[in-house]
Amino acid sequence: LKVGVSCCLQVALRIRPLSDAEQEEGATIVAHRVDEQVVVLMDPMEDPDDILRANRSREKTYMFDVAFDFSASQEEVYRATTKGLIEGLISGYNATVFAYGPTGCGKTYTMLGTDKEPGIYVRTLNDLFRAIEETSDDMLYSVSMSYLEIYNEMIRDLLNPSSGFLDLREDAKGVIQVAGITEVSTINAQEIMELLMKGNKLRTQEPTAANKTSSRSHAVLQVAVKQQSRSRDVLQEVRFARLFMIDLAGSERAAQTQNRGQRLKEGAHINRSLLALGNCINALSDKAGNKYVNYRDSKLTRLLKDSLGGNSRTVMIAHISPASVAFEESRNTLTYADRAKSIRTRVKKNLINVSYHIAQYTSIISDLRSEIQRLKKKIADQAGRQLNSDRTDIRNVQAEVQAHSSHQSRAEMDQLREQLLYAFRQQMEIRKNLMDLENTNMEIQIDTSKHLLTIADWEQERTRRRRKWQAESRKESVNKDESEKDSDSPESPPDSTETREVAMARETLVTLMSEQKKIHKQKAFLERRFLELRDRARRLEELLPRRVSSEEQREVLGLLCKVHELEIENAEMQSHALLKDNVIRQKNVVVQRFEQYRHLCDEIIQKQRQFITDHSLLVPPHLQELYDMYMRELDERKLDRAMALDKVTTRHTIKVTIVGSKHWFCSRDNRVFRSSPHARQVKNAVMTPPPIHINGKERQQILKGVQNIVVKAARRRSKALETDVLRLPAAPSPLDPKQHKSSLSLGEAPPRGLPMRRGRQPSPELRHATSDDNLSSSTGEGPGLQATWTRHRNRQVASKNQTPREVDFEARRKKRRSRSFEVTGQLPQTKSTNAPRFRPLDSTSDPHLHINGQAPMLRPHYRGVLPLTKVRPPHISHQSGGPLSLLHIKKHVQRCQFSSLLLPPQIHPTTSEEATCVSRSSTSPRRAPAPSAPGGTEPALITSWSEQIKAGLKGLQTLCRQRMMSNSSIVHLKFRALSCLTSDVYKFLSR
Ligand SMILES: Nc1ncnc2c1ncn2[C@@H]1O[C@H](COP(=O)(O)OP(=O)(O)OP(=O)(O)O)[C@@H](O)[C@H]1O
C-alpha cells in the first residue's frame, strides 16, 4: 500500500420537500438553501416581539460542500456527491457514501430511490459497470457485491438471510470484514439491481408515525472491485477497492414516533448506534486530535471505521426536513454534519505489485535507469557549471564568444542527446515487446503441446479399444455358428466419439494456431522496426564526434550509448533466459509423463510378480534374470539418480517414489545351492514387507468348505503340467556344463516325450512337482513333469510343512481372488488345457502371513511378498496380445547399457553342478530365446496393463523424438527396458 493522501470528509446536505403530513400539521419551512453550499435554519420558536432576545440572531447558517433543496433531482444529487468516486474506485481507492439524518427525511429515497427516480445505488453501479466496460479491453476486472443490514445490533445478510447473524472480523491488515457474508461476483448491472431489490425487500421496514416506510435498520451495500492489466508486464499491478453505500436508519424521538414495544426497542438501538456514530464524528473532528475514537461502541461504527477515519474517500449526505416541526432534529443533524466536515481521512491506493519470474530483468533495468539518471545529472551539472562560468567571466569578451559557442554546442548536444535517447527508448520498447511476444509464443507452444498430448492420448486409447474389440469379435465369429450370430449380434464397436476434453483441445488448438500466426506477424514487423531504429541510432552515434566539441560531452554521450547497449544486451540475455526456461518447462512435461509411466511399470511388475508368487507359477530363468536386474536397479536407486539428475537440470520437483515396502525378492534355498555374492547383496538389501495379520473369524471362514476346490485345482494343474512338459524341448545332458547352463533356458528343454533327467535325482522342483501331485495322484491322475522352469521355493516347503488349516486358508484365499474358481470351482474351459495358473497349496508358506497373530513355523525362503490387499483378483478373459521378443528386449537393454547390469543368473539351478555352471557363466548375459508360446489365455487385467504400458511408451517415444529430450534420454531408455520386462512377464503369464 502506498502512502496515503489526507483528504476531508465531503458533506452534502439535502432538504426534502415538505411532506403531506407536515403540511396538514400546518408546519412552516424553516430550512432554506441559500446557495450551492449554504443553508439557513430558522428557529420557529423565536418571537419577534421578545425584546430580551431581540439582539439574538433568529437564524443559523451552515456551509457544506454542496447543498440541495426540494428542487434537486436524484441525478443532481448523485452527480455532485458520488459520481466522482467511481474513477477513484477503479483506480484502487476505497470510497463510502452514507445517508444520515432523522427518520423520514429522505435517506432511503436518496440511496435507493424509486423505480422512476432511482437513487445512488443504481446510478453508481450503472456508471461503475460502464467505466469497467470502457476500459475492459486493457484491464481485467472482477466485481463482487454484498448487501447486509444491521438490525438491533445484529448483522444479517440480505442476499442470504438464512445464514443467520454474522460477525464482524478484523483481518491481518486491520480491515473490517463481515465473516461469512455472501459475495456475488458479477459485472452485470441488471443482475445486481435485481439482487438489490430482492435484498431490500428483506430489509426490516415498518411504518411509524413519522414515516410510513421507516427503515428499522442500517443497510450496507458493499461493492468490491479488483482490477489488473490484461497485458502481461514485467511488474503487474493489481488494484482493489471497496465502495460502501450505506442507508442509515433514522434517528428518532420516541415522543414524535409514538413507538411502543418492538418499535421502541428498535428505536433505542438505532439511536444508540447513531449516538456512537455521533461520538466518533465528535472525536474525529476534534481539531486538537486528542480525543479517543471509540469505534467499538456499535457494529455500525466498527463497520464504518475505515470510512470515517481510515483509508477511504467518504461522502456524507445529511438529510433534514424543512418543516418547523422538525426543527430540533434538523438542528442536531446540521450540527453533526457541520462537525463531520472537519474529519480527515488518509486515502491511499490499494495496490499489490505482482512480479513475474522475470523479476531479475526488472532489477537490471532499474539499475540501468539509475545509471542513466546519474549520467543525466552529470550532463545537467556540467551545463550548470558552464552557465556559472559564463556569468563570472562577463567582462571577458573572449569568454563571451566561448560562452556563445559552448551554448550553441550545448544546444546541439542536447538535441543530439534527445534524438539518441528517443532512438534508444524505442529500441528498448521494441525489445520488450519482442520479449513479451516470445514469452507468449512459448506459452502458446506449451499449451499446444499439452492439447496435442491430450488428443494423442485419446487417439491411442481409441486404437487400443478398437483393436481389442476387433480381436474379440474375431474370436466370437470363430466360436459362434451362423444361427447364433443372427440371434445374438456382436457387440457394437467401441464408441469413438471424442470426449468433451478432446473436442475442446481441438478447438483450443485452432485458436492457438491463429494466435501463433498473429504473433509471428507482429514479431516480424517489430524486428524490422528494430533494425531500422538501430541503424538510426548508429548513424547518430557516428555524428557524435563531429557535433560535440567538448571532450567531456563526447565522453558522456559515449557513456550514454554504452549504457543503452548494455541495457539492450541485458534484455537479450533475459529473453534467452526466458526461452530456456520455457524449453525446460516443456521438457519437464515430458519427464513427468515418464515418471507416471515408470510408476505404472513398477506397479505392473510388482502385481504380476505377486500374481506369480500367489499362484506359484513357473518362472523361466531369463525372466527371473530380468526381474532380478529390475530389483537391483531399484535397490541401487539408479532410476532415482537419473531422475534426480533430471530434476537438477530442469529445476523442477519431480516426485520420485521408491517402491519401498513393496520391494520383494525371491531367492533359492541355500541348502540346495549357493547364491552369487551379488545375489546375496541384493538379498540383504531387500526390504521386508510388513506381515499380514489374519483374524480368527476370517481364518475360520477360509478354512471352511474349500477342500474340494483344492483337490480339483491340483488335479487340473497336474493335467496342465503334463501338457506343458510334452511341449517342452529336450533337456541337456547333466554332464555337459554348457548344456547345464543351457538347461536353464527353455529353448534347450528335453524333447517331447523323453523322460526327464534320467540318471539323476529329480530336482527339488521335480520333487516338489511330484509331491504337489500327491494330491492329484490321489485322484488317480499321474504326476505332472516340470524340469527346468524355476518354481517358487515356498511351494516346495509348503507342500512339506503346511498344515491342512494353512492349505485350506490358502485355497480360500485363492477362491476369493479367482472369479472362475468362485463360480465353478474349476478353471475355465480354455485354460484347463494349458499351463497351470493357480496353485492353491503353494502360497501359505508366506513368511509374513501371520495366522491368529502367530508367526508361521516355517523359515521364509523368499523375503518380501506384497501384502495380500495389494493383489487384485485376476479377471479372466481370452485375448492374446503381441509381446515383445526377448531379442527385442535385449536390444533395448543393451542400448541402455543394461548389459553390464545383467547379473549372474538368479535362475535357480537345481543342483550344485548347475550352480557352478551358472557362476561360470555369470558374466555374460543370457541369450535364452523366447519360449515358444504354448498358446493359451491370459487375464484381461494383465493384458490391459501391458497394453497400457506399450501404448504409453510408444506415445512417449514419439514425443521424445519431437522434442529435445537429451536430458531425459536415459530415463526414457530405462523405461523402455522396464516396459520390455513387463511385456515379458506378461508373455510368460500368457502361457
Ligand atoms: N427529495 C425527496 N423528494 C420527494 N420525496 C421525498 C424526498 N425525500 C423523501 N421523500 C419522501 O419522504 C418519505 C420518507 O422518506 P424515506 O423513507 O426516504 O426517509 P428515511 O430517512 O429513509 O426514513 P427512515 O429513517 O425512517 O427510514 C418517502 O415517502 C419519500 O418518498
From TrEMBL:
<dbReference type="InterPro" id="IPR027417">
    <property type="entry name" value="P-loop_NTPase"/>
</dbReference>
<dbReference type="GO" id="GO:0005874">
    <property type="term" value="C:microtubule"/>
</dbReference>
<feature type="compositionally biased region" description="Basic and acidic residues">
    <location>
        <begin position="469"/>
        <end position="488"/>
    </location>
</feature>
<dbReference type="GO" id="GO:0008017">
    <property type="term" value="F:microtubule binding"/>
</dbReference>
<keyword id="KW-0963">Cytoplasm</keyword>
<keyword id="KW-0175">Coiled coil</keyword>
<comment type="function">
    <text>Plus end-directed microtubule-dependent motor protein that regulates the length of motile cilia by mediating depolymerization of microtubules at ciliary tips.</text>
</comment>
<dbReference type="GO" id="GO:0003777">
    <property type="term" value="F:microtubule motor activity"/>
</dbReference>
<keyword id="KW-0966">Cell projection</keyword>
<keyword id="KW-0206">Cytoskeleton</keyword>
<dbReference type="InterPro" id="IPR019821">
    <property type="entry name" value="Kinesin_motor_CS"/>
</dbReference>
<dbReference type="GO" id="GO:0005524">
    <property type="term" value="F:ATP binding"/>
</dbReference>
<keyword id="KW-0493">Microtubule</keyword>
<protein>
    <recommendedName>
        <fullName>Kinesin-like protein</fullName>
    </recommendedName>
</protein>
<feature type="region of interest" description="Disordered">
    <location>
        <begin position="729"/>
        <end position="845"/>
    </location>
</feature>
<dbReference type="GO" id="GO:0005929">
    <property type="term" value="C:cilium"/>
</dbReference>
<feature type="binding site">
    <location>
        <begin position="101"/>
        <end position="108"/>
    </location>
    <ligand>
        <name>ATP</name>
    </ligand>
</feature>
<feature type="compositionally biased region" description="Low complexity">
    <location>
        <begin position="919"/>
        <end position="934"/>
    </location>
</feature>
<keyword id="KW-0547">Nucleotide-binding</keyword>
<dbReference type="InterPro" id="IPR001752">
    <property type="entry name" value="Kinesin_motor_dom"/>
</dbReference>
<feature type="domain" description="Kinesin motor">
    <location>
        <begin position="8"/>
        <end position="343"/>
    </location>
</feature>
<keyword id="KW-0969">Cilium</keyword>
<dbReference type="GO" id="GO:0007018">
    <property type="term" value="P:microtubule-based movement"/>
</dbReference>
<feature type="coiled-coil region">
    <location>
        <begin position="358"/>
        <end position="385"/>
    </location>
</feature>
<keyword id="KW-0067">ATP-binding</keyword>
<keyword id="KW-0505">Motor protein</keyword>
<dbReference type="Pfam" id="PF00225">
    <property type="entry name" value="Kinesin"/>
</dbReference>
<feature type="region of interest" description="Disordered">
    <location>
        <begin position="466"/>
        <end position="501"/>
    </location>
</feature>
<feature type="compositionally biased region" description="Polar residues">
    <location>
        <begin position="821"/>
        <end position="835"/>
    </location>
</feature>
<feature type="region of interest" description="Disordered">
    <location>
        <begin position="910"/>
        <end position="939"/>
    </location>
</feature>
<comment type="similarity">
    <text>Belongs to the TRAFAC class myosin-kinesin ATPase superfamily. Kinesin family.</text>
</comment>
<dbReference type="InterPro" id="IPR027640">
    <property type="entry name" value="Kinesin-like_fam"/>
</dbReference>
<dbReference type="InterPro" id="IPR036961">
    <property type="entry name" value="Kinesin_motor_dom_sf"/>
</dbReference>
